[in-house]
Amino acid sequence: QVRLVESGGGLVQPGGSLRLSCVASGFPFSKSTMKWYRQAPGKERELVATIYWNGVQIYDADSVKGRCIISRDNAKETVYLQMNNLKSEDTAVYYCTSGDDWGQGTQVTVSS
User: In terms of Cα–Cα distance, which of 20, 24, 23 is closest to 9?
Assistant: First the structure.
């Protein structure tokens, strides 16, 4: 049974940082492509970043380029999204995915 559990969200001021984590289980994590998506209120779901099994990173959302780093720890079966210089427009629920499987999401709110 595939399980993806996100954590690390919260309320942060503009310019602040957060590191989101997603612990995976139930599938061969070290061989899997992992993605982070986000969905802001009233907006469509957006692909933020992708990391392949070999560590290659793709930043799919132009708005996060230069501010986010996706990484993975295969020993811990965990994928991370480090977000820096957060802006109000980063406010969203963030989800990690593997194939068709999604976690429950973690809320990120950027506000002063």
Answer: 20
Q: Report the 10 Å Cβ neighbour count for 25.
A: 11
pLDDT tens, 25-78?
999 999 999 999 999 999 999 999 999 999 999 998 888 889 999 999 999 999
93, two tokens:
């629920």
From the centroid of its chain, how far is CA 12? Answer: 16
Structure token digits, residue 97: 């995915």
Count of residues in the chain: 112
| CA distances, 18 to each of 25, 36, 37, 42 (Å) | 23, 14, 15, 23
Q: Would you state the torsion angle of the CA atoms of residues 76, 70, 37, 92, taken in this order, to the nearest 10 degrees?
A: 100
Mean pLDDT of the chain: 96
Q: Two tokens at 57?
A: 């990173």
